């Protein structure tokens, strides 16, 4: 989908999308929930790729949604020559709000490289030499058991903080939610497609709000087996 279309759908009035990364080599966009205000050092410069903040978007990008009268609780969807207002998925349910539900929970992984255990993915520490790490496999995976069923709103993955030559091992990652580790019995949250950068923060929205107590991240390698490692995984749900 063209980037302007994504902006029109997700950035008009209720700004679910706060910034977008455009990956040049495969023409894909990553929708982010925040702008790096006060944290510009978090941006990673790379040839051919680009970053754009929602605060810089011109209103004309919204097309027919420019000047719409949708409610604050709705998102404007352009449908030429006019538009339609669609209810926004609530960020609250009663008095319960979306919170981090994964930190310190039970974890596991398909294999373990040296002392880099699965628990390091939810310990809240984002520092060099602190990450989970599997052996090289075609589809290595990592999972967290949240202890109870949640509706998952997004998963934020922080790539390894050290070893620049290692960060690109993450080329495609799929995230599933369910009540068992059988991927066939789980719901897809979303996926990441692009060689990752060192320290890169990958935000994967679960727009369908899949429900379950287990969140499973799988690194998919097609050419040859490879390692899977992330510094931290943060699951948000209600």
TrEMBL record:
Fill in the subunit field for this protein: Homotrimer.
Q: Where on the tree of life does the source sit, at the highest rank? A: Eukaryota
- Asked if Ubl conjugation is a keyword of the record, the answer is no
KW Iron (keyword) present: no
This chain's function reads: Acts as a defensive agent. Recognizes blood group fucosylated oligosaccharides including A, B, H and Lewis B-type antigens. Does not recognize Lewis A antigen and has low affinity for monovalent haptens.
An example GO biological process term is: regulation of cellular defense response
Q: Name one GO molecular function term.
A: fucose binding
| Keyword line | Calcium, Disulfide bond, Lectin, Metal-binding
**InterPro entries (UniProt xref):** BG_Antigen-Binding_Lectin (IPR051941), FTP1 (IPR006585), Galactose-bd-like_sf (IPR008979)
**Which lineage?**
Eukaryota, Metazoa, Spiralia, Lophotrochozoa, Mollusca
Q: What family does this chain come from, according to its entry?
A: Belongs to the fucolectin family.
Residues in domain Fucolectin tachylectin-4 pentraxin-1? Answer: 98-237
This one is known as Fucolectin tachylectin-4 pentraxin-1 domain-containing protein
Q: Which Pfam families does this one have?
A: F5_F8_type_C_2
Q: Which residues form the signal peptide?
A: none
């Amino acid at each position: 989908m063209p980037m302007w279309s994504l902006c029109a759908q997700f950035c008009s009035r209720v700004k679910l999308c706060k910034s977008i990364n455009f990956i040049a080599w495969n023409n894909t966009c990553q929708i982010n929930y925040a702008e790096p205000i006060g944290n510009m050092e978090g941006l990673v410069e790379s040839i051919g790729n680009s970053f754009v903040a929602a605060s810089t978007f011109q209103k004309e990008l919204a097309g027919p949604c420019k000047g719409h009268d949708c409610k604050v609780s709705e998102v404007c969807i352009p449908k030429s020559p006019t538009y339609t207002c669609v209810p926004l998925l609530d960020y609250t349910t009663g008095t319960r709000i979306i919170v981090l539900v994964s930190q310190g929970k039970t974890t596991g992984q398909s294999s373990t490289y040296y002392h880099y255990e699965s628990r390091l993915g939810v310990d809240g520490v984002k520092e060099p030499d602190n990450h989970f790490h599997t052996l090289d496999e075609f589809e290595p995976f990592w999972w967290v058991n949240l202890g109870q069923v949640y509706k998952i709103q997004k998963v934020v993955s922080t790539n390894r903080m050290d070893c620049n030559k290692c960060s690109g091992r993450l080329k495609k990652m799929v995230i599933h939610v369910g009540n068992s580790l059988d991927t066939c019995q789980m719901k897809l949250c979303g996926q990441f497609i692009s060689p990752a950068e060192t320290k890169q923060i990958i935000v994967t929205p679960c727009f369908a709000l899949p429900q379950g107590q287990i969140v499973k991240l799988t690194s998919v390698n097609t050419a040859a087996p490879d390692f899977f490692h992330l510094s931290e995984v943060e699951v948000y749900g209600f």
